[in-house]
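Weekly modeling sync, notes
Attendees: AB, CL, MP (scribe)

Item 1: holo prediction request
CL wants a bound-state model with adenosine monophosphate before deciding which constructs to order. AB pointed out that an apo prediction alone won't tell us much about the pocket. Agreed to run with the ligand included and paste results into these notes for async review.

Input as submitted:
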Amino acid sequence: MSNLYSRLAAGFPDPATPFAHLPDGSIVTYGDVARRSAGFAHMLRALGVGVGDRVAVQANKSIDMLMLYLGTLRAGAVFLPLNTAYTAGELDYFMRDAEPALFVCDPATLPAIEPLAKAVGVPRVETLESLASQAAGQPGGFDDAVREDGNLAAILYTSGTTGRSKGAMLSHDNLGSNAFMLKDAWAFTGDDVLLHALPIFHTHGLFVGTNTVLAAGAAMIFLPKFDAQAMLAALPRATCMMGVPTFYIRLLDEPGFNRDLVRHIRLFISGSAPLSADIHREFSERTGHAILERYGMTETNMTISNPYVGDRIAGTVGMPMPGVSIRIADPDTGAALPQGDVGVIEIAGPNVFQGYWRMPEKTAAEFRDGYFISGDLGLVDERGYISIVGRAKDLIISGGYNVYPAEVEAALDELPQVHESAVVAVPHRELGEAPVAVVVPRDKDFADADAIRAGIVDRLARYKQPRAIVFVDALPKNAMGKVQKTQLREDCKDVLA
Ligand code: MCA
Ligand code: AMP
């Protein structure tokens, strides 16, 4: 029984048990989950989606999207969720690369997506709304497709250091092994109610949040997005919360966020970006809770975590999770380094993905001796706790979203006004860090930031667009001609203050 859905469903509680509490006060039960996901699986079959076919989805967060995810697993197809911020230009690339059999979107984006899909040969486009209403008329049972452990369950695109997005292929067992491991490690049970405010097109909200809840037969309070007031209202009914550091920073900004409000909570979990030790301490003083910080990647699922029982140490991501093998390696030679030395974090285990979609060479280049090379720099302290101290990859994480400078620089460099550009991470109080562009204009008197912004607005998702544009006469470069980003980061460090 390797189909992830079948594996999760084998442990589902009584059908009347709540799975999701929705903002309108309605409840989706485990019985509804089984019925509605079966309806979607039937619809996929009716639309000609076969085993192994990709189902691409760009839609606002909703319970129907989760039911489509589960229906896709049941039909043996491959779920491909896309950030709602992606522009038409970005979608064009994903459609060509993934060749989905079906693209699912919202009514508002249908007029833009339909012609795009037609042009690249995607056979069908449906709105989630219409798919859901048709699914409701389908039988409530479905014979789940038999899948091997290594068969694909999902593809999630992650940008690359070279600027081209890569589809990380995740198998049924990559996701299943991680879900059950997390349930045990973080002690999830059927009594839990997770406050869910993360997007569901990324690993954190879709797999870490949803799969762990399903594996435990637990429930969630399903909010459309992070909204501080809605969080304050929901917290007293929750037992745990998962969030990116920005969630915690914003909650601490709320005067009404206090110990009393969270007295039913047993666990706060943070990940996707570094949680500063200061925020960890401030949170602990305000609420009495030590946030459990963990570390993971789209390619590897969750791999390192502070303990559920034991010290959760601020500024560390904890220890390797059960079944996960971690080594700290010399970035150049790959040799394992002794405890205390800084090196690149490398990861092996059943959680590690199957490779990048149709990029065998890229995949091979990111593995060493069976370990996936994360590109994050870390060290292990004498107690075995791991700290992330930097990145060997040129990546900016803004509010939990990844921005690859190479992709932004490529868009900027194509503008007629730009001679060359460099994009660097600059500290931002709420988002952790955000991209800032340093631009050398073709005409040295040109300094029109709005014109630059207008030039990239349709090309890059909003969160990738620079928060500030700084004009300079020349970029600092070393003898090899490589841009000195360390110096630029230092020069720009107060730009967003
Ligand atoms: C929204 N905007 C952003 C971001 N989010 N800009 C930069 N960085 C962001 N993260 C922009 C919008 O385009 C908009 O721009 C303006 O900010 C306000 O939009 P709004 O929707 O109101 O934003 P928000 O609600 O304030 O969103 C901030 C957020 C959200 C709550 C931090 O980005 C979020 O939920 N982030 C979580 C991301 C996540 O789940 N990451 C996990 C990846 P304008 O006003 O100009 O239109 S998985 C992962 O990393 C690994 C595997 C792991 O370890 O988990
Ligand atoms: P993604 O490519 O969206 O899967 O993001 C994965 C990246 O997020 C990792 O390679 C890390 O750089 C970063 N990350 C995730 N969790 C943490 C954390 N707790 N602390 C620091 N960085 C993190």
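Recorded for review: Residues 30-46 form the longest helix (17 residues).
Action items: CL to compare against the apo run; MP to circulate these notes.
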